[in-house]
Amino acid sequence: MQKDSSPSLETGTAVAPPALLDLSVVIVNYNVREFLEQALRSVERAARDLDAEVFVVDNNSVDGSVEMVRRHFPDVHLIANEENVGFSRANNQAIRQARGRYVLVLNPDTIVQEDTFTTLVGFMDAHPEAGAVGCKILNPDGSFAWESRRAFPTPRVAFYRMTGLSRLFPRSRTFGRYNLTYLPPDEHAEVDALSGSCMLVRRGALFSEANTNGQSGHPVRNPTRAQSATDASKSEIRKGAGLLDEDFFMYGEDLDWCYRIQQAGWKIFYTPETQIIHYKGESTKQGELRYVRLFYGAMLRFTEKHFEGRYSRAFAWLLRGGIVARAGLTVLARALRRLAAPLLDFLLVFGVVALLGALRTMQTGVEFAPLFYTLVAPGYALGTVAGIGLTGGYRRSRRHRLRPVWAGALLGLLLAAAAAFFVKEIAFSRVVVGVSFVVSGLLLSAWRLTRRVRHTEPRRALLVGHAEEAHRLQGILERHPRTPFELVGYVSSEAPCAEDTAAGLPCLGTLRHLRDLVRLRRIDDVVFATDGLSHRTLFRLIQQLRDLEVQFKILAEGREHVIGKAAIHDLSMPTLIEAEEALGELRSPATRRAFELSLSLPALALHPLVWLLGRLGGSGSFFERLGRRTQQMGAVVQGRRALVGYDERGTYRPPSEWGLKPGVFAISEGLDAPPNRACWFYVRNQSAALDGSILWRALREDDD
C-alpha cells in the first residue's frame, strides 16, 4: 500500500507527477466485479479521443475483481489493497500517481456516455476559473438523479432537508436549496458541490503548481480554448485545495472536497451536456444500518468541521441532534418494513381465531368469555408469529417456505391449548383452537405459495441490439436450467429490421417501435446489448421508457451475465478453477439430512408394498420403476447416497468441492440442462423446495 509523502492532504502542496496526459480516470472498487467490468468498457469508449489513463483501486474485494481487471484490462493501472481503506484514501492513492491535466473520480457502478470525457474536458478548457465540473446523472430507470448537483448542508439547508420541507416545496429557492430542485435538470449552473460518483477535477485545483491551469506544456486537443484559458488564469493566482480528506471513510468526502476547492478560489459547475447512469449504492445499500451510520456520520462530520465555529453553539447542537434524529427515523422505517410480514401474519391468525370463535358461538348458542378474544386469539396469533420467526420464516431467503408456517401454527396451538387447560373460563374453546391450527396453517401457506408463484412466474423480455447478440443471449438462456426471464424477441438497432429469425427468435421491430412494443407485448425487462449499441443511444432509450413499468438490464459485451438495477444474473457456467467461488450459500448438512430422512424412511417402510404393486403391474409399470427407487432408500438412510444427486450412470462427475453424491433421483431429471449445468445450478440454489420440484417432475415422468 502506498504512503503519502506530502505533509498534509489539504494544503495542496503534495508532490505529484508532471501532467503528461489529458485525463486520469480513478475508480475505487469494492466487491462489484460485474459493474466494474461494465464501467471499464464504457470508459474505453469514452476515452478514445483523449490521451488518458485509467486507475482501479480495489479495496480488498473477494469477488474476483482484481483477477478480472488483470485478465481483461491489462492497460489499467491496478492498485490492489489488502484491506478496505475507504473511498477517500483509495482515491488519493491513485491521484498521487495521476499524470492527467484533469482527474475524473468515477464510481464502479456507473456507465459513461461516449462523449462524457471529451465534453467535460472541453468544458474545463473553456472555463479556466472552474476547479471541478459534474454532469447529469441518471438513475437506472432513466430518471434524473438530484444528487447531480447540491448545496452545502449549512444549518439552514440541512434543517429544510431533514424536516421534509425540501420535498414539500421542491420548486422553492429557499426550501429546495440542497439539491437545487428549483432548477431544471437541463440548465447549466454554478453549484456548491457535485456527486463523487462522477466528478472531473482540475489538477491545478488540487496541487500548488507554478501553472495553476495544470497544462505543464502538454499539447491539448483544443489549443485555442486551452491557450485562452491559460492566459485568463494568469490574472488570478489560486492555490491548491489538496487531496480528499481521509477522515471521511465513505460519503461526505465529495462535499468536503468541493468546499475546500471553493475556499481555494475555484468555482464548481454542473453541465447537462453529457450524462452517465449510476446504479447507486451497490457496495452499501441504502436502508442498511451501516449506510445510515456512514452517511449521517459523514454529514455530521462535515458540519462540525466547517460550520460549527461560525454559528452559535446551541444551533450547532440543534443541527447535530437533527442529523441523529434523521438517522434514527431511517433505522425505525427499516425496522417497520421488516415488521410488515409478521404484522400481517398476526392479523390473519387473529382474524381466523376470532371468526371461528364467533361461528362457534352461533352454532352452540354459548357466548364465549371475553378472555377468549383478549387472551386466546391474540396469544394464538402471537405464538404463531413467534414460531415462524424462531424457525427463520421471516428471513429474506426463507420467507416463502412452508415449514416455518406449520411450526409457528403448532406453537400457537400449544400456547392456546395450555391457556384453555389452565383457565377454566375458556376451556370450552378447545375445538376452536384445534380447528384454528388447520385453517391458519392453510391460509398462511396459501398466501406464501401465491407470492412464490407470482414471484417465480417467467418475466417477458426483449433485447435491443444486433441480431447476433439476440441469438447469443437466446443460446445462453437455452443452456441455463432456470432462466430469470423469457426472451420473446429483439428490437434491431439497425434499420430495416433483419429478416433472420434463427433459433426461432423474431425481430420485433426497430428502435422507433420500442415503446409501442413494450406496451403492447407486456414486456417486463428490456435488455440492452452494449456490443454495437452506443451508450448515448442507450441513455436516450431509457429516458423514453422511464414512465413505463419495465426494468432495464444490460448484456455485457462478450460476457454471460446480465446487469440489472437490483441483481446481476450470471448465466455462465464456471470453470473447475472458479467452481468453489461460484457456490452460493449452501444448505447446512443437518437441514439436508433431516429432509432426506423425512422422505427416505417412510419410502423404505413402504418398499414391500411398492414392490408387490410393481410385480402385479408388470415390467415397465409406474410401481415397478418406483420400486427400483425405494429399494435404494436404505443407502440414503446410511448416507452412502443422496436422495437428489448426480446421475452415476452418466459420464459427468461434478467437482468434489460441490459435495454432491450419486442420487436416487438425478438432478438432470428435474432440470432442463446438460448434467454439468444442471449440477452447477443445483449447488448454487439448493433447497428443500428445489429437491421437491425435482422429485415431483421425476415421478411424473415415471408415471407417464
Q: If you had to describe this structure to a student in words, what would you say it looks like?
A:
This protein has 704 residues and is an alpha/beta fold. It has 4 domains: 21-301, Spore Coat Polysaccharide Biosynthesis Protein SpsA, Chain A (Alpha-Beta Complex), CATH 3.90.550; 343-456, no CATH class; 460-572, NAD(P)-binding Rossmann-like Domain (Rossmann fold, 3-Layer(aba) Sandwich), CATH 3.40.50; 585-703, no CATH class. It is built from 24 helices and 20 strands. Strands 1, 2, 3, 4, 5, 6, 8, 10 and 11 form a 9-stranded mixed sheet that branches. The chain has a 7-stranded mixed sheet with strand order 14-13-12-15-16-17-18, with helices on both faces. A two-stranded antiparallel ribbon has the order 7-9. A hairpin with a 4-residue loop joins strand 17 (561-563) and strand 18 (568-570). Helix 5 (155-162) packs parallel to helix 10 (313-364), helix 10 (313-364) packs across helix 11 and helix 19 runs antiparallel to helix 20 (622-630). The longest helix has 52 residues, at 313-364. The termini are far apart.
